[in-house]
Amino acid sequence: MYYGFRLRTSVPLPSLPALAGDGVPDLTLRRGVVPDRLPDAVWASPFVEIAIDGTVLVRIPNVVGFLVRGGCQLILDQDSDAETSVIETFLFGAVAGAVLHQRGILPLHASCVMVGDIAVAMAGVSGRGKSTLAGIMSLRGHEVVCDDICAIGFHGGRAFVAPGPPRVRLWPDAAELLGLSHDGLQTARPNHPKRVLAARGTDAATKPLGALVRLGIDRRLQAPVIRRLAGPAAITPVEELVYRARLGRRLDRRIGLFQDMARLATLVPIYQMVRPEGIVDPSLLVDLVASTVGGGGRDGADG
Q: What is the bridge-based pairing of β-strands 158-162 and 56-60?
């Protein structure tokens, strides 16, 4: 399963569990021709371009390239000799974001773990500590639902998370903070300092989202604090909560993203946890999250 969808692939992906049976796939991944640039691009950013028909090109020069079409066809550059770990890194990052936006699924920029029988998403811009928190919670026995991209669906008046690969990507200082050997972790991509912690994951079933915790930093604080948010402040700015929100808007998801976030806020309690600048004992943050959402999050998820 790939963020809740059945993926048929001709490319080995050891981080994804194999599914039994021959059901019709939702997506396919194969090798093929991937251009260096899109000749009819209507939008471009570093490493990502969008064609007039909504096709997305993800291209890291001299490393790997993908074409994403209609949220169901993934083409990996046939000329790329990238290692499997590199292919997976981008497949579980920018490519996944393109797939989810194309399919109209809300991708939170969040890492998610299980706290009891509910999923807790920890969201924020890069550098706020999402993966570090997920990593320390994993080491303390919590199952990791996903890291960095959290695919949200709605059903029966509840919000659910589709599990992604239980791989937590850590910067060197984060690995050290968690007591891990940076050199002993798997490389995510060549010449990049991030490493991959293979965490204990969940089964492939969607998980009820019980709380969303927004992460922030305030140099004026002496200790971390957490409070519940309400109204527009809970879901704005969208760029801090949605993975590659600009990409989603360019794929005609501007209204859809706002509607999904507004719906999420009616179903799930949203908190903001702010920590002081600099190194903070991650155990303090974990305990603060667990004690806050362990009971209140469950009630909020029931709508």
A: unpaired
Closest CA relative to residue 169, chosen from 191, 190, 138, 147? 147
CB atoms within 10 A of CB 219: 7
Q: Are 163 and 206 in contact (CB under 8 A)?
A: yes
Residue 300 has pLDDT above 50, yes or no: no
Q: What is the CATH number of domain 106-301?
A: 3.40.50.300
Rounded Cα–Cα distance for residues 162 and 256 (Å): 19
Q: How far is it, in rounded angstroms, from Cα 43 to Cα 120?
A: 34
pTM (whole model) above 0.70: yes
The three-state secondary structure class of 204 is coil
Sheet containing 64-69: give its strands across. Answer: 7-9, 27-32, 73-77, 64-69, 56-60, 48-51, 41-45
Domain with CATH 3.40.50.300 in the chain: 106-301
Which backbone phi and psi does 162 adopt, to 5 degrees? -90, 120
Question: Is the per-residue pLDDT at 20 higher than 70?
Answer: no
Categorize the per-residue pLDDT at 197 as very low, low, confident or very high, splitting at 50, 70 and 90.
confident
Contact call for residues 200 and 143 (beta carbons, < 8 A): yes
Tell me what the mean pLDDT of segment 274-301 comes to.
Answer: 74
Q: What is the pLDDT of residues 198-225, one digit of tens each?
A: 788 888 899 999 999 999 999 899 889 9
pLDDT of residue 172: 73
Helices 282-301 and 130-139: crossing angle in degrees, nearest 10, is 90
DSSP annotation of 14: T
Of 91, 108, 120, 116, the residue nearest 27 (C-alpha): 91
Exposure string of 165-202, with b = 16+ CB inside 10 Å and e = fewer, is bbbbbbeeebbebbebeeeebebbbeeeebbbbebebb
User: What span, in angstroms and rounded, lies between the C-alpha atoms of 148 and 249?
Assistant: 19
